[in-house]
Amino acid sequence: MGSHAEREAFLTQVRKACAIGRTLKDLGVRPYGVVRIDTAASPAEWSKNPAGNTKKIAETFRLAADIAEDHGERLAAEGEICWGGMHSVTRNVELLEMVGRPGTVGFQADMAHTLLFTMGYNAPDDRILPENFEWSDRGALDEGLKKMTRALRPWTIDFHVAQNDATVKGSGSHDKTGRHCLPFDPNGKLDIVRHAGFWLRDEHGNVERKLDHICWDGCMFPNAVMTEQKTWSDVLGVMNAVRDAHGWE
């Protein structure tokens, strides 16, 4: 949503990423996949002109979609509270509808980041869970997650299994971003396997089969954690459980 030069730089990176993706497909090592994008702007900057900035972002994303289509690729916009214009459920849906290219530009759902949408971080007016919500109220949590996934699931083309303890890092009102937890962190708020089904199944409980793969998002972990065998045994165990519960052969 920046200057002409900044938007051109963004599109140049999309072009490079799509070219790399296409090359990997042609080599046979990447039969499916998407290219992830974001708005490259903070909620604070976006909030200076919400309507104008969302319009400008949508225009840039449409140009990016043209590039992706030329390469046979799709773009997944990463929903996270730190990206201006994509920092709540409402704003994500608004932007994706404005882009209007559902076959090419969709949503990347990360279970850790999207949990924070329900709490209204960086977008208090768009929070889903009530302010006096208690995490022991699992029914209310389920209803909040279902409301969120109903809005975003039709746009979702990339899915990250993850855990979150409902905390954020950063300070101020418009620069917070989410954390990830290990699968069995005692402070984790998600029932990972069951709540993954809110994304992977339709309103009637049927597996949608819209996604070709699942992955684990483990950003923000120290290197020491990433070199422990237990980390990967736990991660792969949870991913297998999600696949067994909501996937297919």
Quick tags:
TIM Barrel; five-stranded parallel beta sheet; two-stranded antiparallel sheet; globular; 10% strand; 249 residues; 7 strands; alpha/beta
How does this model look, in words?
This protein is α/β, with parallel strands linked by helices. It has one domain (4-246): Divalent-metal-dependent TIM barrel enzymes (TIM Barrel), CATH 3.20.20. It has nine helices and seven strands. The chain has helices at residues 4-27, 43-46, 50-70, 89-99, 111-117, 138-152, 192-200, 223-226, 229-246, and strands spanning 35-37, 75-78, 105-110, 156-161, 168-169, 177-178, 215-216. It has a five-stranded parallel beta sheet with strand order 1-2-3-4-7. The protein has a two-stranded antiparallel sheet with strand order 5-6. Strand 2, helix 4 and strand 3 (105-110) form a beta-alpha-beta unit. Helix 1 (4-27) packs parallel to helix 3 (50-70). The radius of gyration is 18 Å and the shape is globular. The chain starts with a helix and ends with a helix. The relative contact order is 0.11. The mean pLDDT is 93.
Strand order of the largest sheet: 1-2-3-4-7
Biggest beta sheet attributes? 5 strands, parallel
Helix segment tally = 9
- The structural domain count equals 1
Classified by CATH, the class is: Alpha Beta
User: Which series of helices and strands comes N to C?
Assistant: HEHHEHEHHEEEHEHH
Class from secondary-structure proportions: alpha/beta
- The helicity comes to 40-55%
Distance between the amino and carboxyl termini? 42 Å
CATH architecture: Alpha-Beta Barrel
Show unreliable segments: none
β-strand percent reads 5-15%
Report mean pLDDT, rounded to a whole number: 93
DSSP E strands, number: 7
CATH topology: TIM Barrel
CATH-level-4 superfamily name: Divalent-metal-dependent TIM barrel enzymes
- Backbone CA Rg: 18 Å
Principal-axes geometry comes out as: globular
